[in-house]
Amino acid sequence: QVQVVESGGGLVQAGGFLRLSCAASGSGFRFYTMGWYRQAPGKERELVATITSGGGTNYAEPVQGRFTISRDNTKNEVYLQMNSLKVEDTAVYYCNAKPFQSVEYWGRGTLVTVSS
User: Fold this and answer.
1) Nearest to 47 by CA among 108, 39, 55, 6
2) Where are the beta strands (DSSP E) in 1-116?
3) What pLDDT digit, counting tens, does each position of 14-47 carry?
4) Are strands 10-13 and 110-115 parallel, antiparallel or unpaired?
């Protein structure tokens, strides 16, 4: 069982920035594919960004150029730097840990609210 805990959400004005953090347990963290997803009110959960064990990254089109995902394997943490935030970025952000292709764990989420 992998424990996943997000932090760093909050209220920010449009154009501002936030940095989300996610801590995941397990001695094999460096091998996990990690990801950030989000779910806005009334919408389905959607991919934001992923980072592989080798550092390869993938971003959803709406956040490309504004968000950056990174990881620190020495701390078992993954981060999401969110810049130039927009009102439409308002959502609960979830961290996902994938030790294997068919196994994944989710955190409880952290709320990001962007005001106009």
Assistant:
1) 39
2) 4-7, 10-13, 18-24, 33-39, 46-51, 57-59, 67-72, 77-82, 91-100, 103-106, 110-115
3) 999 999 999 999 899 999 999 999 999 999 999 9
4) parallel
Q: Which long-range contacts (CB under 8 A, 24 or more apart) does 102-106 make?
A: 105/1, 105/2, 105/3, 105/4, 105/24, 106/4
Q: What percent of the chain has pLDDT over 70?
A: 100
What pLDDT is recorded for position 68? Answer: 98
23 — phi, psi (to 5°)?
A: -105, 135
- Token representation of residue 93: 């952000």
Residues belonging to the chain:
116
